[in-house]
Amino acid sequence: MDGRLRFAFPLKHDLTLALVDFGADARLSGVAVGQVMAGRDLSAGELHLKLDRKELLLDGTAQLDGVPARLSWTQSLQKNGPRARYTVQAQLDDAQRQKLGLAVPVGTMAGPVGVDATYTLVSLERATARIALDFRDAALSLAQLAWRKPAGVPAQGRLDLDLIDGHIRAVRQATIKGGGFDAQLAITLDPAGHLQRMDVPRLIAGETDLAATATRGADGGWRVALKGLSLDASGLMDSLGRAQSDDQPGPPLAIEAALDRVILGPKREARAFHGQLVSDGVRWRSISFDATMFGNGKASLRFGQAAGGHSFRLTTDDMGALLRLFDISGNVQGGKLEVAGEIEDTARRRLLRGTAKGADYRIVNAPAFARLLSVASLSGIGALLSGEGIPFSQLTGDFTFADGTLEVKGLRAYGGALGIKADGVYDLTRDALDVAGTLVPAYTLNSVLGDIPVLGPLITGGEGEGIFAANFRVAGPAADPKVTVNPLSALAPGVLRKLFLFDAPEPSPLPASGGEVAK
Q1: Interval 31-68: pLDDT, tens
Q2: Strand 350-363 to strand 109-110: parallel, antiparallel, or no bridges (unpaired)?
Q3: What distance, in Å, lies between the first and last C-alpha atoms of the chain?
Q4: Which segment of 70-84, 210-224, 439-453 scores lowest on mean pLDDT?
Q5: Can you list the alpha helix ranges (DSSP code H) found in 383-450?
Q6: How far is 494 from 462, CA to CA, in rounded Å?
Q7: Is residue 340 helix, strand or coil?
Q8: How far apart are CA 174 and CA 5, in angstroms?
Q9: Which residue in 213, 217, 204 sits closest to 251, CA to CA?
């Protein structure tokens, strides 16, 4: 320590402190103080101390729990104004943030972040803090909003906090701007430090441009309202469909949205979207939405309580657009569709049971379907797939869905060129299918004989089949299934054709996570 201490006062027998002028100026080296800030030790301090009648100022460099930083402490000696002010400036990389307990969710931030924090003690109980953040050299990512900022792109953030007895009570304002991201929010906490309310007057990230509020209810549940120009929900679909485990349920959640656009992926978006979703913390109990798709087709869903109980109903006047919107298939054009049924819930399982009805659509550019028609020696009909498509006038079928598996029974689709009758299973978890059924070429002409009393069903095999038809089976990975057609079945009358049904080959093993073969 090297310093100077100064006193000046008049020589009076009734001397008071108000008449004494004093000051100090010193250099402090190797300073170490235990648990100086948030339980962290300060070491290797190289500090400059200045003292006068107004304040005590201590600033310089030191290590906070081994992390280099520039620090300052200003202690007021006046009766009015803030009692003390502390500042910390540092450049924190991933390891240093982890060491100081400032870790962020994995995958959201990588690289150094500049921090300039000021803590002001307004009174013995009240304090404020302002934290400025420089993200230029850090890579940022919010997968839920499909937004990324590479390192080197300028971006800044700021937090304004209110504290009582050292605990945060409110985030008066938080902002982040840069790299195509511009957000502002405010947060209110209760005396126990639990989040009570969040207001987001502005959130712009990539294709997302909206405002939101989130309010916590007396039951601990949340009510969220979204409104604005657009929401890029392509990164939210997985979390929306993921049910929470029964032993760790989340809080109840109610979401209400009114958005001009909802984006689910490239060229997949809904317009004029109005929706409501309600979860009890374990399952989605109620879902409803109305939207307009590309081509001005309309879609509507009522699920659970939104449908008046334990039922659901999905309708659209453009089946192809709806299937493309949810990335189910890009091989259907036009058509009407209605899917309706009942919901059966048990403690650990949800089952959907219902019926699908469609009309007036076309199948185009479907490779697996083209292979099936080719193997069945229906290449003439298959050629339609690369042109105007194969038209179907009707579609009906029953289904059940549970535990990631869709089972279809009695599926019938027919048009003037082709009829199909099928049953099967699609395992969404493994992306594998196993479907067997009958192909009926020239369906309109071929099935006329089925109208003959008594003999008709014997010749054609029953409703949905024809006198000329072939049994088929498609099984294996959905991207490259094995297609099999029994040629003898095409020569047999309808009733005898069932004798040529054969067991499906087992679906090929699919790679499991980690590169192992699923068993």
Answers
A1: 999 887 767 889 999 999 999 988 999 999 999 889 99
A2: unpaired
A3: 71
A4: 439-453
A5: 443-446
A6: 7
A7: strand
A8: 44
A9: 217
Residues in the chain: 519
β-pair partners for 24: 5, 51
Extract the tokens encoding 213.
């509020």
d(CA 38, CA 452): 89
Name the residue among 110, 160, 103 with its Cα closest to residue 135: 110
**Secondary structure of 110-137 in the HEC alphabet?**
ECCEEEEEEEEECCCCEEEEEEEEECCC
Tokens of 346: 């048990």
Structure tokens at 226: 């979204």
How confident is the model over 112-121, as pLDDT tens digits? Answer: 999 999 999 9
Exposed, middle or buried by CB within 10 Å (0-12, 13-18, 19+), for 392?
buried
Model-level pTM? Answer: 0.76
* Cβ atoms of 216 and 202 closer than 8 Å: no
**What pLDDT sits at residue 92?**
95
User: What values do phi and psi take at 94, rounded to 5?
Assistant: -60, -50
For residue 239, report the phi and psi dihedrals to the nearest 5 degrees: -70, -30
C-alpha neighbours within 13 Å on the C-beta side of residue 167: 10
The predicted-structure confidence for 363-380, as pLDDT tens digits, reads as follows 888 777 777 777 666 666
Domain boundaries, the chain: 364-519
